[in-house]
Predict the structure.
Amino acid sequence: MYELERIKQLKKERKAIILAHNYQRAEVQDVADFVGDSFGLSQKAVTSGAEVIVFCGVDFMAESAAVLNPEKTVLLPELAAQCPMAAMITPLSLRLEREKHPEAAVVCYVNTPASVKAESDICCTSANAIKVVNSLPQNEIIFVPDRNLALYVAAQTDKKIIAWDGYCPTHHLILPGDVLIEKEEHPDAEVLVHPECRPDVTALADKVLSTEGILRYVKQSGSMEFIIGTELGLLHRLNKENPGKKFFAATKYTVCPNMKMNTLASIIRALEKNEHVMSVPEDIRIKAKRALDRMLEAGRGD
Ligand code: 13P
Ligand code: SF4
């Protein structure tokens, strides 16, 4: 209780809002002003009139908010909350790949550092990856860094996709056998998975969607049971917003330890000590912002 009161007080003092990703701890989601997916959070960071944004997510999300809003203070409560997939590519390695495919456009998943976004033509999220790829005039697309998302997009487009070799260690833990066991136990359930899952898992799904896409789909579906293939934090909103519907995790192992680092105590510390301020060198910020603005202009595709 003390923590909730203190957060309320600090938010008022600092004219701050709290943005939280759908994978955050339940108590962090519950204290946030807005909970969403990478696309929704980027949009909210731009439209909010707050002076300070406490970004409860991982590094690339808070960094993107800072790129888009140089006049606002963006705080990442836990500096160690870093997405391992975003670290699977560097600007230099991307530049070398571009040299090998001079005709290709570069689409980078938002799960990348700003320095990689700065080397890309456009960003995308899981909510608009197919739409973004199809919007480009080029026929060849270098898609970084998530191989699974790249392969999923490749199956939905006529364009030639050159996939990078990165992956999400959390979504990789979902195996086809896990989904098959759940399907056997819940034969009426719809299978909804995130596109960061392996291709042999997405092949078993009824729908492949972003985290917010899963939430939207469930609300309008006539089904009462769902098997969910993504990080377990999503179950909090699924259960809260859909009383009467039942959700079964494809496996209990899909916990992203980085997403779970932010706590109520770290939100308080972030606001009290102004920690950790996200900043990006101006030359990189301007180029990365161009790629992120294009992503936002493309809109959601799910
Ligand atoms: P969403 O944008 O679908 O929420 O996914 C973000 C992410 O990090 C998935 O692992
Ligand atoms: Fe990165 Fe995967 Fe965690 Fe998302 S779930 S933040 S992609 S490690």
